[in-house]
Design goal:
The chain is mainly beta and about 1100 residues long. The radius of gyration is 49 Å and the shape is extended. Pfam families: Laminin_G_3, PA14, Pilin_N, PKD_4.
């Protein structure tokens, strides 16, 4: 068995269709052929003897497809009869091959077989050593006769009919005086065929076409596929544009015509040429590639400074360039980057040699090929890479510290020996362009003239436009007129020397049978405040107020918020409607926002479109739904104010509906349409004309009727304005342009981050937590970078404080959330005191606490008193419900009944010295620690007590069943003291040690820090607006003002006290007096107080509630201490 040296050769046909040598000859021969024999008898005597055909012999019919590899010819049986092994021969360029000498590749196999019986469809014969062939013939030898049944290549004989036995030539005994003449038979219809050389190349490509048709055609018609033709037999044709071209030849003789079409036969690519040879070098006057470089173009990279050239240890040749002194005036401590393109003539494996002193690197196609980096004397490194024919981006980097400066680039391949690289192209000629285009209008009525503009990047040099209606253009910015209605795809193929790129826009141009509108606002713009007019009249609008682009009825729509959004279109004569007005739009309305005091007759009215002011409109349309009853009004001016209206049609909130209106002064009728159908007659008695004006046009608002304005709320889409009277059918056609889809709820954007501060570089993982199923995300990380991932990871490389924004979108709309100063990479060190305040939930810290209010509340909160806590400074009926209370000296509670500690979240109650819980039936919640002695009388103890000194019991305190008092010193109690209480008092050798956290209140920061972080400098004169931040150098005092809104405030008194008085509305925030005290007189305060000299609450009934500093300041870099 002979092994075939190719793979996968049994296929329908997978060869190169442009190089295919193919013939599918048919072997059906015409049945009875009369054979004419001429016999010479004697001198000058001619005898014509007519003999009939012998019995016909059946001849097989089949077709072949030849293909080759490097050595052999493969004949693929593509259809027809099977041939037995001993009943045919293969003739290649006149040389006969016996099938017994040939191997056959069966269908579905890769290997050739030498032992086979017949050659059938899908199988290939292998003819060894005949890869370079011109002609192939398959000759049937069955029945003892030779008949051509298939062939390919030059001078192929195409037989017709059935084969016959060899004709008999019969001499006559005597010459015949008069010969018998046989009529000349009609030729067969031509079988068209041709070749072209070459079949591919770059612009301009000259192709020589050669006719190979049989049956003696007498005329030819060539179609070259680029819009040109020829009637020559063997024409030469020049392709001046790039692309793939299908060629058709029609060959004709008196019997008829035959044609052949070769699809995508000619391939023409853009011309690849280099206008500026060489490579661009950027020279820097330092070794770090920093600063502004000096540039020049070098033909090759073969450089050394004079010291290296003069060094006898090296031989750089006589033509090496002294470098880089002539360029930057120095040969030490410099760097250079060479960039350009490497021109490759033939695909091959290439070896590159890079020699340098000091470091250098070579990139080709953005891949590192040679790495010769580092400080070193002249050293060579090499690398291998396979490169295809064409242009390849190349870059060389080199730096020099001191000593010799050398840089050389050489190469070699199997096709040439080692030498310096000089095949460089310096221009930016080799980047494939990115195709793009725009049109001045994308819709309108027949005929529609559109100006197309190329917006491709990458410097294309040729263009091929397809307008979707069967016409093309090679202009850069063509103008085209569409003569028929329909939707048209438009494509642009932009090319340069490097290649080409397509931009295709489906259904880009819409041409209707309608007249062209004077304004067509589709609201399909991706962003920006311009509402583009698609009518071609240039009536673009400016979107005012707060708006968003959401899912519309046809693509995107514009959302009007009902309080500020409208579209303003500058005045233009095309917008004037003296006789006729037609309006159409898709609306998805919401109940409007009625201004306070609006008269009932105006409630829920919204202005759809308006040109004019108040009661002198050229036209204005209003619509409303009030309590389920709809009303439409048309206002105009014709010597006097006119208003026409109708009621009772269908107009619903929260759903799409198409609203159209036509006013025709010729007929006097004004008609309303809903969803393409007649809805109501607004009036039948219009004036003869409408007065025009010079006012702008507005959409969604009335121009001048303060304070009402009649603002539209909801989504608008596809607003169309005509100054002709449209018919019922035309209204239906507009309505049928699109069908709105059900709209989901717009997303509500939100996100979190796994960390918000740290040192650079800091990697932060962001997690999208938006609701309502967004389908796209746009993150702005605040450092100039963005992401469209749902939950991206981002690294901040530079110090700073960054705001982060997330925009989420779905078909229902878009929502954005911005977290200001969210990420801190500022390197600001957070003080231990600030961390302690946040971690421990500190909300009162100071020397004293004087409290005349009702309660101090704060689950998980901490109060720290650096002196004493005494009952005479606490309202007897109050409760100090902090979880942890640390008092550095004595807790003396000998009157009143103020509770101590949190019942819901008990923590630690600590006295650094003595604790006295005497008069007052007060509750004590939390684990009590006493640094010295404890006196206990009326209190109610809910948790364990630990006493480092003596225990003195008086009266009968209450102790919870699971609570005990552990003491180290001695115990003292009255006679007859209840044993049940004594049993809960246990003497021990030691108790757990605990101490007040040792932190000192820090001073205020520098004034410049507060200024740069948004603080106002004030001593109490400014209004306390919500969120205000204040720094006072001395005492800050503020009495309530009716304008105050003291929520989420921060007040810092750098060297004095803070005093807030007479606040009968809630106050919340942070009060920081590092050298003074805080005094509060008001109904309630939420937040934290840090004051060296204490916190004083002077008014009865005041409630103080803890809030952690993190609830006011999310970024630790903004902590005020």
């Amino acid at each position: 068995m002979k092994k075939d040296n190719r793979k996968n050769r049994n296929y329908g046909y997978k060869g190169d269709k442009n190089n295919l040598k193919r013939c599918e000859a048919v072997s059906d021969m015409v049945g009875a052929i009369l054979m004419v024999s001429l016999v010479v008898i004697g001198i000058g005597a001619v005898s014509v003897v007519i003999t009939s055909q012998s019995t016909p012999v059946d001849v097989p019919s089949m077709s072949i497809i030849p293909d080759t590899n490097a050595n052999d010819l493969f004949l693929y049986h593509s259809g027809g009869d099977s041939l037995k092994r001993g009943e045919f021969i293969v003739r290649v360029d006149g040389e006969d091959f016996n099938p017994s000498e040939l191997s056959l590749i069966p269908l579905g196999d890769d290997d050739g077989e030498s032992d086979w019986d017949s050659w059938g469809v899908g199988e290939s014969l292998v003819v060894p050593g005949k890869s370079d062939y011109s002609q192939v013939q398959i000759i049937s030898t069955g029945g003892g006769h030779g008949s051509l049944i298939a062939g390919s290549g030059e001078a192929v004989i195409t037989p017709t009919g059935t084969a016959t036995a060899t004709p008999t030539v019969t001499p006559t005994a005597t010459a015949t005086a008069t010969p018998t003449v046989t009529p000349t038979p009609e030729p067969d219809v031509p079988v068209a065929d041709f070749t072209g050389t070459p079949t591919n190349g770059s612009v301009p490509l000259t192709v020589q076409f050669t006719d190979l048709s049989t049956e003696d055609p007498t005329s030819w018609l060539w179609d070259f596929g680029d819009g040109t033709t020829s009637t020559e037999e063997n024409p030469e044709h020049v392709y001046s544009t790039f692309g793939t071209f299908t060629v058709t030849l029609t060959a004709t003789n008196p019997s008829g015509s035959g044609d052949i079409t070769k699809t995508d036969y000619i391939t023409v690519i853009p011309s690849q040429s280099c206008e500026v040879e060489g490579i661009t070098g950027s020279y820097y006057e330092n070794e770090n590639f920093a600063g502004t470089p000096v540039k020049r173009i070098d033909q090759r990279i073969r450089f050394a400074d004079q010291r290296a050239i003069d060094d006898e240890r090296y031989d750089y040749g006589s033509d090496i360039t002294d470098w880089p002194n002539p360029i930057i005036g120095r040969d030490e401590r410099f760097s250079v980057i060479y960039e350009g393109y490497l021109m490759i003539d033939e695909e091959d494996d290439y070896t590159f040699y890079l020699t340098s002193d000091d470091g250098s690197r070579l990139w080709i196609d953005d891949n590192l090929v040679v790495d010769n980096w580092g400080d070193h004397s002249p050293k060579e490194e090499s690398g291998n890479v396979r490169l295809t024919e064409g242009f390849h981006p190349v870059k060389v980097e080199m730096y020099e510290k001191t000593g010799h400066a050398v840089l050389q680039l050489e190469w070699e391949s199997e096709g040439f020996g080692r030498g310096f690289v000089e095949d460089f192209c310096a221009e930016d000629c080799c980047k494939v362009p990115t195709a793009g285009f725009t049109a001045d209008k994308t819709s309108g009525g027949v005929p529609l003239t559109v100006q197309f503009s190329d917006s491709s990047s990458g410097s294309p040099t040729s263009w091929l436009w397809s307008f979707g209606d069967g016409t093309t253009s090679t202009e850069k910015n063509p103008e085209h007129t569409y003569a028929g209605a329909g939707e048209y795809d438009v494509s642009l193929k932009a090319a340069n020397a490097a290649g080409y790129d397509y931009e295709n826009k489906s259904s880009y141009i819409t041409v209707t049978g309608l007249p062209s509108p004077v304004g067509w606002w589709k609201f399909d713009e991706a962003s920006g405040s311009t509402a583009v007019d698609s009518s071609g009249n240039g009536n673009d609008g400016s979107i005012k107020g707060t708006y968003s682009r959401v899912a519309g009825a046809c693509g995107d729509g514009l959302y009007f918020d009902g309080t500020s959004t409208y579209v303003l279109v500058s005045n233009d004569d095309t917008l004037d409607a003296p006789k006729y007005i037609a309006y159409a739009a898709w609306l998805k309305p919401e109940p409007p926002v009625n201004p306070n005091g609006m008269a009932s007759k105006y409630l829920n009215f919204t202005s759809l479109i308006c040109k004019g002011s108040q009661d002198e409109d050229n036209y204005e349309l209003f619509i409303r739904n009030l309590d389920g009853t709809s009303k439409f009004s048309f206002e105009t001016y014709s010597g006097s104010y006119k208003e026409y209206s109708t009621t009772g049609f269908g107009y619903e909130y929260g759903q799409w509906q198409h609203v159209a209106f036509v006013a025709d002064t010729d007929s006097g009728a004004a008609t309303l349409y809903i969803n393409g159908e007649y809805a109501a007659t607004v009036t039948s008695s219009l004036p003869d004309s409408f007065a025009t004006n010079n006012n702008a046009l507005t959409i969604g608002v009335q121009q001048m009727y303060s304070p009402y304005f009649f603002r539209y709320k909801g989504v608008m889409d596809e607003v169309m304005l005509y100054t002709v009277a449209l018919t019922d059918d035309q209204i239906r056609e507009i309505y049928g342009i699109c069908t709105p889809s059900p709209t989901p709820n717009a997303p509500v954007a939100d996100f979190t981050a796994d960390t918000a501060s740290g040192d650079a570089p800091l990697t932060v993982s962001f997690t999208d937590s938006s609701t309502n199923s967004p389908t796209s995300w746009l993150w702005d990380f605040g450092d100039g970078t963005t992401s469209t991932e749902q939950s991206p990871e981002h690294t901040y490389d530079e110090s700073g404080i960054y705001s982060v924004a997330l925009t989420t979108t779905n078909a229902g709309g878009t929502d954005t959330v911005t977290k200001t100063d969210y990420i801190d990479i500022s390197g600001v060190e957070i003080s231990d005191f600030a961390r302690f305040v946040v971690d421990e939930g500190v909300f009162i810290y100071g020397e004293k606490l004087e409290f005349n209010g009702d309660s101090i509340n704060g689950l998980g909160s901490t109060v720290i008193i650096t002196n004493d806590l005494k009952a005479d400074k606490i309202n007897g009926g109050a409760s100090l419900s902090a979880s942890n209370i640390y008092v550095e000296n004595t807790i003396d509670m000998d009157k009143g009944g103020a509770d101590i500690g949190s019942q819901r979240n008990p923590g630690i109650i600590y006295a650094g010295n003595d604790m006295k819980l005497l008069q007052g039936n007060r509750n004590v919640y939390g684990e009590v620690h006493v640094g010295n002695n404890l006196e206990l009388k009326d209190a109610r103890i809910h948790n364990n007590v630990y006493v480092s000194g003596d225990l003195k019991l008086e009266h009968e305190p209450w102790i919870a069943d699971d609570a005990y008092i552990y003491y180290v010193g001695k115990i003292d109690f009255p006679k007859n003291f209840p044993q049940s209480i004594l049993d809960k008092c246990i003497k021990v050798d030691s108790v757990p040690e605990i101490s007040i956290p040792e932190y000192s209140i820090p001073n205020a920061k520098q004034a410049s820090w507060y200024s740069s972080h948004g603080y106002n400098f004030d001593d109490g004169d400014k209004i306390l607006s919500s969120g205000i931040k204040i720094l006072s150098d001395g005492n800050y005092e503020r009495k309530r003002d009716n304008s105050d809104d003291p929520r989420n405030i921060i007040i810092v008194s750098k060297d004095g006290d803070i005093k807030l008085e007479n606040y009968n509305k809630p106050v919340s925030g942070i009060l920081f007096a590092p050298k003074g005290k805080v005094t509060f007189k008001g109904d309630s305060f939420e937040g934290l107080v840090i004051a060296k000299d204490g916190f004083y609450v002077e008014q009865g009934g005041t409630d103080i509630t803890f809030k952690n500093m993190e609830q006011f300041i999310t970024n630790p870099a903004y902590y005020p201490f």
